[in-house]
């Protein structure tokens, strides 16, 4: 079992938005990966992006700079 630690979780309204975010991050070398939304969070599409909280500034910058569609950002133990 993976050790639980603080993670940055980004949720999306639609699966299409989550897949577009994944493609953007892979293309631009941004850290993280798609996961099912943790049970402690309620989100629209059921998919979320997980990254280390230290990566939050880079991810928030990309979201703002390129108007990426997201729902919310959380920091949770996962």
In words, what does this structure look like?
- This protein has two helices and four strands, in the order βαββαβ.
- It is α+β, with helices and mostly antiparallel strands.
- The longest helix is centred in the first third of the chain and has 14 residues, at 15-28.
Biggest β-sheet description: 4 strands, antiparallel
Shape: globular
Number of helix segments? 2
Order of helices and strands: EHEEHE
Number of strands: 4
Mean pLDDT: 95
Q: Low-confidence segments, ≥5 residues, pLDDT <50?
A: none
Structural class computed from helices and strand pairing: alpha+beta
Q: Assembly state here?
A: single chain
Sheet with most strands: strand arrangement:
2-3-1-4
In whole angstroms, the N-to-C terminal distance is 11 Å
- The tally of domains stands at 1
What's the gyration radius in Å? 12 Å
Helix content: 25-40%
Q: Which band does the percent of strand residues land in? A: 25-35%
